Amino acid sequence: MLEAKDLAVEFSSRGRRARAVDGVNLSVGPGEIVALVGESGCGKTTLARTLLGLVRPTSGTVSYDGSPLTYRSKALKAYRRQVQLVLQDPMGSLNPRQTVYEAVAEGPRIHGLADEEQVVASALARAGLRPPERFFLRYPHELSGGQRQRVVIAGALALDPKVLIADEPVASLDASVRGEILALLLRLRDELGLSALVVTHDLGLAWNIADRVAVMYLGRIVESGPTEEVLKAPQHPYTQALLSVLPESPARIVLSGEPPDPTRIPTGCRFHPRCQVVAAGNPIASKCRSDLLPVLPATADPQSACHLTPKLLG
């Protein structure tokens, strides 16, 4: 349904070029949920915005249903009816002066859909706000956090999209309602055949909702594959470090060095300055510092961009 091929996005910063996305191949199949995980600053949100057509790539292509995305206004308008965004902060993404009805009706009005009231009621009902008419005249401050996030999801569903891109969809919610929103996303996948790319730093969320996981570091996918295989037997040292912070992990891995700087991509493996394997003096460390790794392809098979796992390289 949605695919990034050799995608790169660069920004100018005080005379330097920041490679926020640096050669990404990623696909989301029909009815599939893919989790894009990584720490803050790794390029997840920039990649999501590029997939939505909000940022034009420096190179590479975004394709929907096999056709490359073009950036003419008419084409983008049609594309955004099929691929919708769900933001992490419903209080920030909802206009406090708009009622729930107005918030959900905005998309259908822009796209000129008929039977507006029926469309809004159906979207709210599918998002779990029933009876929908009871919420029409309410304002965001009158709703709970979970209800506000359901309104945001309803606003996306009102256009009958095929793909949702959800950026940290439960990060701002209490633990008690996170499970309800995740269950809603799974139900929408099962009932409507929706595909979804879920951007998150929470590996527990990825475990509960995703069919596949893609781990991103410094603008590039460093490991991907079926969720159970990646999270039960991670091959890349970065994935192992991310998983080590979970409560059930036997030992925590503390990464050395500074968080990645997209204006200064290291030579060799881009993770080597912080890698616990290199820090431990592994014999392969010199190769990690000097030898470039290939960009991973968009595939459902397990793969890792690491000199320690050459058999898994794309």
SSE order in H/E notation?
EEEHEEHEHHHHEHEHEEHHHHE
- The CATH class designation of one domain is Alpha Beta
The rounded Rg comes to 20 Å
Main sheet summary: 7 strands, mixed
Main-sheet strand order equals 6-7-8-3-9-10-11
Number of strands: 11
Runs in which pLDDT lies below 50 for 5 or more consecutive residues are: none
The chain-level structural class is alpha/beta
* Mean pLDDT across all amino acids: 92
Give helix % range.
25-40%
Shape, principal axes of CA atoms: globular
N-to-C span: 21 Å
CATH architecture call of one domain: 3-Layer(aba) Sandwich
SS strand fraction: 15-25%
CATH domain fold name of one domain: Rossmann fold
Structure description:
With 314 residues, the protein is α/β, with parallel strands linked by helices. The protein has a domain at 2-65 and 162-312: Rossmann fold, CATH 3.40.50.300. It is 33% helix and 22% strand. It is built from 12 helices and 11 strands. The chain has helices spanning 44-51, 73-82, 90-93, 100-110, 116-126, 145-157, 175-192, 203-209, 227-232, 237-243, 276-279, 285-290, and strands spanning 2-13, 16-28, 33-37, 59-64, 67-68, 83-86, 163-167, 195-200, 212-217, 220-226, 303-304. The strands form 2 sheets. A 7-stranded mixed β-sheet has the order 6-7-8-3-9-10-11, sandwiched between helices. A 4-stranded antiparallel β-sheet has the order 2-1-4-5. Helix 6 (145-157) runs parallel beside helix 7 (175-192). The radius of gyration is 20 Å and the shape is globular. The relative contact order is 0.15.
